[in-house]
Design goal:
The complex is a heterodimer of chains A (186) and B (340).
Chain A: E1 2-4, E2 13-16, E3 19-29, E4 37-44, E5 50-56, E6 60-62, E7 67-76, E8 80-85, E9 90-95, H1 96-99, E10 111-117, E11 120-125, E12 130-137, E13 150-155, E14 160-164, E15 172-176, E16 181-185
Antiparallel strand pairs in A: 1-6, 2-3, 3-4, 4-5, 7-8, 7-10, 8-9, 10-11, 12-13, 12-15, 13-14, 15-16
Chain B: E1 3-5, H1 10-29, E2 33-34, E3 40-41, E4 53-59, E5 62-68, H2 73-81, E6 87-94, E7 107-116, H3 120-140, H4 151-155, E8 164-167, H5 168-176, H6 180-184, H7 186-195, H8 205-217, E9 228-234, E10 249-257, E11 260-267, H9 272-288, H10 298-307, E12 311-317, H11 318-326, E13 337-339
Parallel strand pairs in B: 2-6, 8-9
Antiparallel strand pairs in B: 1-13, 3-5, 4-5, 6-7, 7-12, 9-10, 10-11, 11-12
Helix pairs in contact in B: 1-3, 1-11, 2-10, 5-8, 7-8, 9-10
Classes of the chains: A mainly beta (186), B alpha+beta (340).
């Protein structure tokens, strides 16, 4: 499907220089000197490489029709993450560097969506939020009332996030996996 | 589109108001007259890369096209020609086809300032003084202690005591490795852009230039602790600015803080014949690109014929200026109501 680059949005998959890339960021920008532009950051789905790329907003870009299929996240090794389509029991693997840092928040057995194009997996659609148990964090110091103060906490997948001081070991917290930000206590 | 209520932006909005108050105070002290203006006009200045909003006035059988002004310039220049003196407009401007984005909106606040008898670089000093004034007001504002935004102090580390100045040609050489010779020669420029990996087929010099400017130059501007003033644009980007004696560049500067363009300043073109010619060219490009066709403001040319004395003018994206002081990164974070 061809669209104007001005309509690109985060998450779209585009053909660029013969390869498939996913749009990570797309900002409209009109410099007032020449045509309006779309400033994007795109990520190669094979190498995981990120590139800043500026399209003219009126130019035509090929956006791929991609399926997103719910799968179970199985496990990861040094190179890949493994997923299973629960309807067909078919397994798919994705390179760690393509999925990126969001994978630090994936818990084995969780369900998530994997993008499929021509029967090949491209990458994971990160969940908006994940719920994980805190396994390590310091106790809050009494009397420390600075509002907005944060401390590090390790969650069950091994990732470390900054949390408010009242969070304790054993709490289940929600995290935005894309920004690694604490969003609340469950 | 929908109406979005953002009451959580109340504190940011108060900073916005403080910036507005400080700017108006400063300009009043300096003797500028505030001008209130219409936003609907039957004719406009043709600007090739801007799209406009078209509407219609109706009275029984009478119908007349009206256009929301993309800038107050057409009104202010008239008043300047007829002797209003130093003046400014702070109010809405409209640009169609600008979707709501981090630094863009189809409806935004524009601060446009004119000063008689100065050129662009002299006006720059006044703008710097204005920002320093605003900064002092913000630092001493009573609500500051209440602002929850922890970003505030860490983000605004800009020193307004001086400009970091760089010419456009120096910036292309330093940040993009494009020599002055290559910059001004269209063929050499396009060849160089191609070598650098830019797409050049079916793209104009202006388009390729903009791409390189946005990708390689802008991110380097205003990041060394001072606002950056980048000056002397190729004549292709002269718009309503007077040309330099070299014939290659225009007396135009823009200024940046943290890679964000905040303002665009010219030594105003006062030659009506040249202005008329530029209007025809811009109008032609508009037609070619399928933009909305609007009547060209002939009264503007008449005013120039009457005689516009030398002056400098600057247009500042007021919402962008305020976001710098509020320590936020998107203009919608300053607003209580957003159309998104």
């Amino acid at each position: 499907m061809r669209v104007n680059a001005g309509n690109l949005k985060k998450g779209d998959f585009v053909f660029h220089q013969g390869e498939i890339w996913q749009v990570q960021k797309a900002d409209f920008y009109s410099p007032g000197k020449g045509s309006a532009l779309m400033k994007t950051r795109i990520k190669n789905v094979i190498s995981g490489k990120n590139v800043e790329y500026v399209y003219k907003s009126a130019e035509q870009v090929e956006v791929l029709d991609v399926l997103s299929i719910e799968m179970q996240y199985l496990y990861k090794d040094n190179e890949n993450l493994y997923f299973m389509d629960e309807r067909t029991y078919e397994q798919y693997s994705l390179p760690v560097n393509v999925v990126g840092e969001v994978a630090n928040f994936f818990k084995e057995g969780e369900k998530m969506y994997v993008y499929i194009y021509n029967d090949k997996p491209l990458t994971v659609r990160p969940p908006l939020s994940v719920k994980l148990k805190v396994i390590e964090t310091e106790d809050a110091v009494k009397g420390d009332t600075v509002s907005g103060a944060k401390k590090p906490a390790k969650v069950e997948t091994g990732a470390v996030v900054m949390v408010p001081l009242f969070v304790k070991v054993g709490d289940v917290i929600s995290i935005n996996p894309e920004t690694s930000e604490y969003t609340g206590r469950v | 589109m929908q109406i979005q209520t953002n009451i959580e932006n109340l504190e940011n909005y108060k900073i916005y108001l403080t910036v507005q108050k400080a700017v108006e105070e400063f300009l009043e002290k300096k003797g500028y007259l505030k001008i209130d203006l219409p936003v609907l006009s039957p004719a406009l200045i043709p600007e090739s890369y801007l799209e406009v909003f078209e509407t219609e006035f109706r009275y029984f059988d009478k119908k007349e096209k009206l256009y929301l002004t993309p800038s107050p310039e057409l009104f202010l220049k008239r008043l300047l020609a007829y002797g209003v003196g130093d003046c400014y407009y702070l109010g809405k401007s409209f640009r169609n086809s600008d979707p709501p984005a981090k630094l863009h909106s189809f409806e935004f606040n524009m601060l446009e300032i004119y000063k008689m008898g100065v050129d662009y670089l002299q006006l720059a000093d006044e703008v710097l003084e204005m920002m320093e004034y605003v900064n002092k007001k913000i630092q001493s504002a009573s609500w500051r202690t209440k602002v929850k935004s922890q970003n505030y102090n860490s983000k605004l580390k800009i020193n307004f005591s001086q400009w970091e100045k760089i010419s456009v040609s120096k910036a292309f050489e330093r940040y993009a490795g494009i020599s002055e010779k290559e910059l001004f020669d269209h063929q050499l420029f396009i060849k160089k852009a191609k070598e650098k990996g830019y797409r050049v087929d079916n793209f104009s010099y202006e388009d390729i230039w903009s791409q390189i400017y946005v990708q390689e130059i802008e991110p380097k501007l205003g990041i060394n602790g001072y606002p950056t003033l980048i000056y002397d644009y190729p004549k292709e980007f002269a718009a309503l600015a007077k040309l330099n004696p070299d014939g290659k560049t225009a007396q135009r500067f823009e200024f940046y803080i943290n890679g964000v363009e905040l303002g665009d300043c010219y030594t105003e073109l006062t030659d009506w014949q040249e202005q008329e010619q530029r209007f025809f060219n811009e109008d032609k490009i508009r037609r070619k690109n399928g933009k909305i066709i609007h009547p060209i403001d002939k009264g503007f040319i008449e005013a120039l014929k009457y005689g516009l004395k030398p002056c400098g003018g600057i247009a500042i994206g007021f919402d962008r200026l305020a976001l710098i002081f509020a320590g936020v990164s998107r203009i919608d974070e300053l607003k209580l109501i957003n159309i998104v």
